[in-house]
Amino acid sequence: MSSLTMSIPPGSWILVTGANGFLASHICLQFLERGFKVRGTVRVPAESLWLLEGRFKPYVDIGAIELVSALHLGADGAYDEAIKGAAAIIHTAYVTNIVPDPNDVITPTVAGIRSIMNAAIQEPSVKEVVFTSSALAASPLARGVDNGIIGRDSWNDAVLEAAWAPPPYGMSHAMANYPASKVAAEKEVWEFVKENDLHFNVNVVSPAGMTGEPLSKKHIEGQANWVVHAYRSNKAVMDSLQASFYGDVKDVALIHVAAVLDPEVKNARLQSWGHSAHWNEILSILRRLRPQKEFVDDYSDPHHLKVSVDQTESVALLKKWSDKPGKNGWAPYLEG
Fold this sequence. Notes:
This protein is an alpha/beta fold. The protein has a single domain, classed as NAD(P)-binding Rossmann-like Domain (Rossmann fold), CATH 3.40.50.720. The protein has 11 helices and 12 strands. Strands 3-2-1-4-5-7-10 form a 7-stranded parallel sheet, with helices on both faces. Strands 8-9-11 form a 3-stranded mixed sheet. A two-stranded parallel sheet has the order 6-12. Helix 3 (106-122) packs parallel to helix 5. 44% of the residues are buried.
């Protein structure tokens, strides 16, 4: 790994937006471990001090990590100061509120893309920009929906139409707004790339569900902590999404790191979904790990989603950039 050619040198500043998120915190840590410096944007730095403690503390002591405030995701100039001197940007921040009005979710998410891209255009130090999208931008990941093979031009346009359906806004809008915001935001990224003569490279990483080690107690209670839902027998959530794809958060973070550092990855749309899985498979692992605990019964009709995705490029990056000898793909379920 140390002999790999990098698009930017160690010691460079990496800007990570939404740095206190489950995925973003792992991205920050992996860059720090590779000798880079990290500037993380959060809404309120005082509420994310855990990013300066524990495993992050040695990097605080050498001035390699700092937190800055970015209160409003889509505000004009929201990232103008934070971006100064940064060689790379990883934009993971998104609107987390589950609310019915798409104007409160989709609109600021897309505005956030414009804000950070406009800031990057004005900052000559920027060489690489990576956006976190979602598998839901390409596929609804729904039972019975056969999307065939997901490719470069696959889009979940139906959810965008559902989110922008006329008011009154209800729960159907609320459930559609997050995936719709990912569709709209990623389309905005590629439209921006098409319309502008950029001095930096742009890549997109699209995860599905994520499992793995939380770096903060807050992440254990997160809305999308899938393993916790199974561990706590939260049938309300489990029943609504019996099958999906899951990747270990450390692997998804590594693909983001590689999308910045690998000079051969350009203009890439990296589908990084991980393993196809059903709750029964996850429950089986949990029963083995916690034999004294009682879990919900297996589902009577286990199934996998009728969708195929080419993750060749993402898996190749995992093999190339991992510091684990012999790593040949996605980590097994629930690997720490």
